Every structure is written in C-alpha cells, then in structure tokens.
Amino acid sequence: MNEIARRILVDQGLKPVEFEQPHVIDLIRKPISDVWTVVCTHNDKVFGTPAIFCCFANMEHKAQILEESNWLKHPDSFSPGFCMSAGSARFDSSSYDGFHFIVMEQYFHSLEEAQFHLNQEFALLFELYRDPSGNYYKIDECGNREPVVVFEKHQVKVKTKYLLRYMCARQFLFIQFVDLRVSTPGHMPFHTDPMGDDSDAGPNYIFDRWYQGNETENYLLSMIYARSYVEPGPIEDCGLWPYDEDEEQYPEFIINGLPDGSFERFTCEESKLTTRWCAGSTGLATSWGRCAPDAGSEGHAAARGTGPATA
Q1: Is the pTM of this model over 0.85?
Q2: For the chain, what is the total number of helices (H) and then of strands (E)?
Q3: What sections of 106-258 are H helices per DSSP?
Q4: How remote is the C-alpha of 78 from its chain's centroid?
Q5: Nearest to 222 by CA among 188, 269, 175
Q6: Where are the extended beta strands (E) located within the chain?
Q7: Which of 65, 73, 148 is nearest to 104 (CA)?
Q8: CA 178 to CA 25: how far, in whole Å?
C-alpha cells in the first residue's frame, strides 16, 4: 500500500489491513487450497466482496495468463454462434479459443433472469446426478449421494478433487480471475483522481491494485484485478479408467481430509512406517514405527504401531 492511501486511512481511523485484503491476496496466490473451490460468484454488492470467475484453458495459454491482470473471460463469454470474418460466416463453439467453461451464465433479457449451466462433459465424465434443486451429486453403488457441484445464492462451488481429476484427464489449466473493490464509508464522490498503484507477480499469478481518492482526502477506493492458474497433474492421477486401479493391501485409518480430496491416514504398511522417537525423548516424528537402538529413552526402542501416510 502506498503512503498516500495509508495516510488517508489512518486519518479516518481505519486500519490499512482492511484495504490490503490479505485473505484475497492469499486466494490469488493459491487458487486451489480447500476441499471446495468457488468457481463463480454473482453478487449485486459491488464493494467489499471479491468477484471470482474460474474456467479451464489449454496448456498453451499459460504464458498469456501472466501478461496482464484484466479478465480474459466472464461467465457470459462462452455462448456458441456464428462469427463474420472477411465477408463469410464461421461457426464458433463455446471453446473455440482454447478456454473451457466450468459454469457459464445465460441471461434472458425479457425475463430479467440468468441461468447457470455446468460443463456437460464434466458432468458426464464423472456420471453426476442432477437433483431437482440443480445441484450435482456423485452416486455410489449403495445410492449414497456425494455433493460435487453446488449452486448457492451468490456463488457456485465445486468439490476440488473433481476439478483436479478433470484437469488431469484433459490436461487443462485451471484459471482464476478476481476483481475486488474496497472503499471507505460514504458515497463515492463525483470526481476522483488516481492516488498511486502497486502490483505483484509470482510463478502462477499476477495482480494490479489502483487507488483513487478526492482532493479533500476523505474518500479512498482500492481496486484489484488478478489472474492465477494451476497446472494439471499427470494424466495417471485422474482416477478414471484405465488409471483407476489402486489396490490397498494394508488396513488404513483416515485421520484428516486434504484439499485435493485425498486423505491423511494411519497406515500399517511397514515400508511407510518411521520412528516415533527418532529425535530423542522430546522429538516426535510424524509416523509411528520401530525406533533405532539409539533413538531415545529405554523402552522407546521397542515402540511399534501405525502412523500417518498420505493417500
């Protein structure tokens, strides 16, 4: 944050951290970090709530993503149709340019109403069931439902492990666009002037931030535009036939869920076991197992059990 913006906030008794929005910056830097991933927001509230839209893209777009911070795609950018070029008509599909929607918006002007559509290849690939509410579920052999895509009032979220599996299967990038605007209390003045900017870029993200205010310095607006991407894992990690064989020969116990849908487990497989007291009587290692003879106090050398392993 530049000094002019910081001074205005301090003069108004506000905390600069409220404008720095560290949680949003963390989201920009790490778009996929939870069990669920928000892929689209639709909120009438302009200030204070980040607008998010995510899609897939072919791998060749990776360099393009980090060139600028403005949005390349929006929820309504994926309608198929004809395009006129050099006097002739050409039909373009929704993914003609190498970008592929996860969810897209279709607006009906006469009804003043929008509908969201899920990528049908995504739904068909994982054999998702759509219930009357419009949400999508994975159905197991016993008829149990696992929610995968949920359409909420102001956002659409997808279970992260299915996004990652689809990315692996199709070798697509996951692209995230973010737009955040935060202002001090009160109405926006009729006239504002630029008051500086800053930017940041990393291996997989870029964002720009602008500040605007008025001459009396009693109003401040901050705007952030950002792009991020996540690369796919190897195709073998998609978990789809013929890459779905994963035989477990040892009993394991789930102790924690991870963002990609896998689990941290206690395992009995000897090759994955390590020492409990490897660093001495005060150093607890991450896994249970047989200690080395010099590992710690008497009795610990015989310790043996099960320990965490990541599936």
Answers
A1: no
A2: 6, 18
A3: 120-125, 160-170
A4: 20
A5: 188
A6: 36-41, 51-57, 81-85, 88-92, 99-101, 103-108, 113-118, 128-130, 136-139, 145-151, 155-159, 173-183, 193-201, 205-213, 220-230, 252-257, 263-267, 307-310
A7: 73
A8: 10
Give the CB-side neighbour count of residue 159, counting CA atoms within 13 A: 19
For residue 13, CA distances in Å to 20, 73, 184, 185, 248 come to: 15, 38, 10, 11, 59
d(C-alpha 275, C-alpha 115), whole Å: 55
Mean pLDDT by 10 residues, the chain (311 residues): 77 78 94 97 78 98 96 94 88 92 96 94 98 97 97 96 98 98 76 83 96 78 95 97 74 77 74 54 42 40 43 46
pLDDT at 186 (0 to 100): 72
Question: In degrees rounded to 5, what are phi and psi of residue 105?
Answer: -105, 135
For 259-279, what is each residue's pLDDT tens digit? 777 778 777 766 666 655 444
Dist. CA 307–CA 311, nearest whole Å: 13
Predicted pLDDT of residue 19:
79
- What pLDDT is recorded for position 163? 98
Task: Give the DSSP letter string of 153-195.
Answer: SSEEEEEHHHHHHHHHHHTPEEEEEEEEEEE-SSPPPS--EEE
